């Protein structure tokens, strides 16, 4: 959680991405999901989201999830929620 916003981090080939930790299909946490290649898959209904952008890639999700800019400085992860 970052400043009251639930966030899930994904490490895709060494690149760190941050997405809102809530499936856009139903309000389940994406952090319970699985990383498949460059996608985060919700384990509850199979909705698939692109980690880099939050774009929905499969039903039942018809809306993207919010993605956040990530910076890494001195081995610390900073997330821009704006």
| Order of neighbouring strands in the sheet with most strands | 1-2-7-8
What is the C-alpha radius of gyration, as a whole number of Å? 12 Å
Give the number of DSSP strands. Answer: 8
**Fourth-tier CATH superfamily name:** Rieske [2Fe-2S] iron-sulphur domain
CATH topology: Rieske Iron-sulfur Protein
What top-tier CATH class fits best?
Mainly Beta
Structural class: mainly beta
Mean pLDDT: 94
What is the 3D form? globular
Low-confidence segments, ≥5 residues, pLDDT <50?
none
Instruction: Report how far the terminal alpha carbons are from each other.
Output: 15 Å
Biggest beta-sheet profile: 4 strands, antiparallel
Characterization of the model:
By secondary structure, this protein is mostly beta strands. It has one domain: Rieske Iron-sulfur Protein (3-layer Sandwich), CATH 2.102.10.10. 0% of the residues lie in helices and 44% in strands. It has strands spanning 7-12, 15-20, 34-36, 39-41, 48-50, 56-58, 67-73, 76-80. A hairpin with a 2-residue loop joins strand 1 and strand 2. It starts with 6 loop residues before the first strand and ends with a strand. The mean pLDDT is 94.
């Amino acid at each position: 959680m970052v400043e009251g916003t639930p966030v899930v981090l994904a490490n895709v080939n060494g690149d760190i991405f941050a997405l809102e930790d809530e499936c856009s299909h139903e309000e389940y946490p994406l952090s319970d999901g699985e990383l498949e290649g460059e996608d985060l898959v919700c384990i509850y209904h199979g909705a698939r989201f692109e980690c880099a952008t939050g774009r929905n890639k499969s039903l039942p999700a018809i809306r993207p999830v919010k993605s956040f800019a990530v910076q890494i400085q001195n081995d610390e992860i900073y997330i821009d929620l704006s």
